[in-house]
Amino acid sequence: MTRVALATLIMLLGSISSAAAESVLHSSPEALEWMQRITAAPRQHSYIGTFVYSSGDHIETSRILHRVDAEGEHEKREVLDGMPQEIIRNNDEMRCYMPENKTIVTEKRWLQKVFPALLPQSTGNIDDSYIVRLGGQERISDHTCQVIELEPRDNRRYGHKWWVDTRTGLLLKAAVLDQGRVVEQFVFTHLETGIEIDKALLKSRYAAKTAEWRAVNLVSSTMGNEKLGWRVRDLPQGFRKVIEMKRNLSGKPMPVNHIALSDGLAAVSVFIEPVAGQASPPTPGLYRSRGAINIYSRIVADNIITAVGEVPSATVMQIGDSVVSHRVK
Amino acid sequence: MKSQISALMDGELKGDDAARIIADLRATDALRDDWALYHLISDVMERPDTGFGHIARRVNTRMDMEPVVLAPHAPARHPARLYAVAASVAAIAVVGWMSLQMVEQSQESQMAGASATTSLAQAGPGSPPAAEAVPVMAASTPAQINDYLLAHGQFSPNTAMHGMTPYLRTSTDSYAISAR
Are A72 and A90 contacting, i.e. CB atoms less than 8 angstroms apart? Predict the structure, then answer.
């Protein structure tokens, strides 16, 4: 009985402190712990599943096979609607097969691996930009899921709602929200975990046919801090520079400057390249992709600046408009 | 019994009644806990501004006395690690399908590049989403932007979750959609 009463005391105290915390708007430590589980889950569980992506009136279904073994993570994804597309991943190496265009895109994604380590250590905190809260439990694809809500602290970024499988920590549903309106969402309609996936199933069915395909290799070389000669002067609250690099994009005579920014969750890339020598440089303006991505282009000193990211249009514009050349200071 | 404890607390019980309750309190652990709890509630209600430290002290004292602590273990926060988590967590592998729509193209074409972009920038956060403006087909090839999307994919939180490149489409595909 003593314990029951004590538990009551603690609960009471807990509700008081969370009420106090609410007034300064801190994320729930428990919700943040769930985020760590979500991150770890794909490195711990093999699974086969089918998921649906939807945005506006567009719906697209994909199949995924994900195998975890001693060598790491191996994955095959197939887009099942519209134009066929297969993405094969072996740890940090990605190959994307697009048979209708006879194109294969490869990327040695070493950055993915070291990416978090590149972030500013002292200040990096999701809590600066979002309030992470624990929601209730809901059932998704016959799995019990914990709901995690990420409320943006300002209108410079979208909100997120995640449904996490309580057993494995895998993300079974996710929605990107713009002031409560769903911008895009994704949900597993079928998921099997705890199964052995045959390695042979993870090979692309196009692997043997690519000899005459066009190969695009997304090569990049990192640059030292502010070595590109360009910088973003006015970063939206919570955003930080992740890395600067030069990239070889398909069909470009010269490498393109690339500055990557992130608020810990949403990323924005800034691309800078000279207008001269291009057959058809992008027209300045605001573009909208399907889903959460917004794109903004402008011309500065004979260079075309393009900001791309899964953030509201005002944010890509703020970033794009504040790109300056060092030499112009 | 609980109402009597409450009455005792409020000084409403006298003489024998009070003595009996006090005797019960002495004899029964659970009642003493109720007694403590009621005082706690009363403290909170009467002094909401100063109550927290007081309660915390009392609870700490109680916990020191208790052999078993029922408090859930609060996870320590590691900001740096958390950032890493967030970076890779993000949403999902979204195979977002490129559909470029030029926004405010007509306005754009009437002005020189710089001034046009200024007008766009002035749209600002308070104005309605630019997406709601009449979409006009992109004038330039979206191929370049597809390349940008591809390169951006590496950093996109959408990519991180299941490790794929989102928004990966070809230019012909984009054209077909934007031409609608």
Answer: yes
